[in-house]
Each structure stands twice: as C-alpha cells, then as structure tokens.
C-alpha cells in the first residue's frame, strides 16, 4: 500500500507542469515585430521591451546571444531575481543582427 502511494506521488510529480519564469529583455532600437520567437519562447514586444515565459531560473549570456541574433542589440536581459552583468551585456551586443 505504501509502495503504491509513493509511486503515485512520483507519477504526479512527473506530470506536473514545468515551472515558468517571466523574463524581459530590452533592445537599443524598437523591435520590428510585436512577437519574436527564439529559444522556444514567444516574446511579446512593445517598442524596445519584450517579455516572455521561459522554463529557466536564471538569465544566461548564451540565451542573450540567441535573442540578439533575432531581435537586435540587447541593452538588458533579466527576470525578477537575476540580471545579466554589464560585461555580459557587452558580450551579448556583439551577437546582434546587423
């Protein structure tokens, strides 16, 4: 009986929805499109600010570079707990589309 309860709880844990966190990035110039899809996320953009939900906890330089290739020069990338450093933002800018 206890074994069944443990297996049931484990199954529910696997079936639970993934944890999504709201992320925001800002660009140097307004983004041409109101929706940009990159890194498996649909980003909703208004002017230079874009927001999206990602199944990650932290912002990364790697993600910033991928976004920059699609959206242009990134000036900030953050969520409610983490933000890329000024050095990482400079490295990210080098990946921006031309």
Q: Count up the helices.
A: 3
The H/E string reads: HEEEEHEH
Q: Which geometry do the CA atoms define? A: globular
Helical proportion, percent range:
25-40%
The number of distinct structural domains comes to 1
Amount of beta strand: 25-35%
Explain what you see:
With 98 residues, the protein is α+β, with helices and mostly antiparallel strands. It has one domain. The chain has 3 helices and 5 strands, in the order H-E-E-E-E-H-E-H. It has helices at 2-15, 61-71, 86-93, and strands at residues 21-27, 35-38, 41-46, 49-54, 74-79. A 5-stranded antiparallel β-sheet has the order 2-3-4-1-5, covered by helices on one side. Residues 7-16 have low confidence and may be disordered. This is DUF5666 domain-containing protein. Pfam families: DUF8200. InterPro entries: CC_3452-like (IPR058067), DUF8200 (IPR058513). Keywords: Signal. Residues 1-20 form the signal peptide.
Give the gist of this structure.
This protein is 34% helix and 30% strand.
Structure characteristics:
single chain; 98 residues; alpha+beta; 5-stranded antiparallel β-sheet; 3 helices; globular
């Amino acid at each position: 009986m206890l074994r069944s309860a443990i297996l049931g709880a484990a199954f529910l844990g696997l079936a639970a929805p993934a944890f999504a966190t709201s992320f925001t990035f800002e660009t140097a110039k307004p983004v041409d499109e109101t929706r940009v899809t990159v890194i498996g996320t649909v980003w909703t953009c208004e002017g230079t600010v874009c927001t999206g939900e990602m199944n990650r906890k932290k912002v990364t330089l790697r993600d910033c570079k991928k976004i920059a290739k699609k959206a242009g020069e990134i000036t900030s990338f953050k969520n409610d707990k983490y933000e890329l450093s000024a050095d990482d933002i400079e490295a990210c800018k080098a990946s921006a589309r031309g």
